[in-house]
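Quick one:
INPUT:
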């Protein structure tokens, strides 16, 4: 009972220390509010008002028909200009796309030839360049085919593909980006807060105060784990209910309670990682550099940005040792597909096992580090 009381009061001390750290409070507030909204809404889901210039060297009904097909809201009204002005506009960033229609284009199409159109794309805006080039190819191919045929009609296909979008019927990008940003921020803040709490004790000299008290290393480590986990848990619940469901309007189909239970186990693992990193670091700048080296692989290779199946097999096997990999799999299954405990229990077990290993490693490392504390 004494051990639990000590852990509780030490955790309260951590709350007070965090309350006196305005930089951390601002980081928590931003990460679980505006950052999630920006990640969900910052990237456009479709092309929007892309500037286009057309060099029409044909001046025929077909070339004018192509120009008339590029209209808002995907594209701005095309500017008919010369080759020189189009090239200068691309260099200055005035146009995102320039289309060069060669002479005798309509005549070659009607004669059954396959004339080439030159489409120049400003690829400094990668997402706009990719989406816009696909849109323009589809529009131009459709106009040319209809003109050559003499009427608008859908080409008969030998098969009919009936595509059904599951879990996100309208392919709304914000539904995915918002939740994944929440998951990444949970990992980031839990590691930073727990590790910074330990480094702060060393920098302020209060670690010596704890060592002369009748406290065990287990009580000190456990207090930082549970207190920082509670902070991140409360912030994550706020973000899930207010930002994800409220402002962004993401449809959560699964059990929120089951997700929060998995989140609690994950916080046990990630806060233990933070404590371990805090015992290795000797100063806050050193801890910050170590966080960068650890967080980037955890977030990029966990499956939150790209599917793990598209990664090399060796990377997939290595990332099975990271709790974030199982957390992302569990979160996507619960929140998107409505999976129950009978499906995600392997992820729960894996996260808890990895967390236990990190906690033991953090405890051993902390015991060694306090033996080297200088009086």
């Amino acid at each position: 009972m004494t051990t639990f009381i000590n852990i509780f009061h030490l955790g309260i001390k951590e709350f007070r220390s965090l309350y006196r750290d305005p930089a951390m409070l601002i980081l928590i507030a931003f990460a679980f509010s505006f950052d999630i909204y920006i990640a969900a809404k910052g990237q456009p889901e479709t092309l929007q008002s892309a500037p286009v210039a057309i060099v029409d060297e044909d001046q025929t009904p077909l070339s004018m028909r192509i120009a008339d097909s590029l209209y808002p809201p995907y594209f701005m009204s095309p500017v008919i200009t010369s080759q020189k002005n189009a090239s200068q506009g691309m260099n200055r960033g005035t146009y995102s796309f320039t289309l060069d229609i060669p002479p005798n284009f309509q005549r070659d199409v009607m004669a059954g030839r396959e004339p080439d159109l030159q489409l120049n794309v400003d690829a400094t805006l990668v997402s706009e360049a990719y989406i816009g080039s696909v849109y323009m190819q589809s529009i131009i191919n459709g106009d040319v085919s209809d003109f050559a045929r003499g009427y608008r009609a859908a080409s008969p296909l030998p098969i009919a593909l009936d595509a059904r979008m599951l879990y996100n019927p309208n392919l709304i990008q914000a539904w995915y980006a918002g939740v994944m940003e929440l998951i990444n921020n949970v990992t980031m803040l839990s590691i930073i807060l727990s590790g910074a709490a330990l480094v702060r004790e060393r920098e302020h000299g209060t670690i010596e105060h704890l060592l002369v008290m009748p406290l065990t290393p287990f009580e000190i480590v456990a207090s930082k784990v549970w207190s920082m986990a509670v902070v991140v848990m409360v912030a994550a619940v706020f973000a899930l209910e207010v930002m994800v469901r409220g402002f962004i309007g993401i449809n959560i189909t699964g059990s929120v309670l089951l997700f929060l239970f998995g989140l609690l186990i994950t916080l046990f693992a990630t806060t233990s990682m933070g404590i371990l990193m805090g015992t290795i670091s000797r100063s806050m700048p050193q801890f910050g550099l170590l966080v960068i080296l650890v967080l980037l692989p955890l977030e990029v290779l966990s499956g939150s940005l790209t599917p793990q199946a598209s990664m090399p097999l060796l990377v997939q096997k290595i990332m099975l040792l990271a709790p974030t990999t199982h957390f992302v799999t569990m979160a996507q299954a619960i929140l998107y597909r409505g999976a129950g405990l009978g499906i995600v229990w392997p992820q729960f077990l894996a996260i808890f096992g990895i967390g236990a290993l990190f906690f033991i490693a953090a405890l051993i490392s902390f015991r060694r580090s306090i033996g080297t504390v200088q009086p």
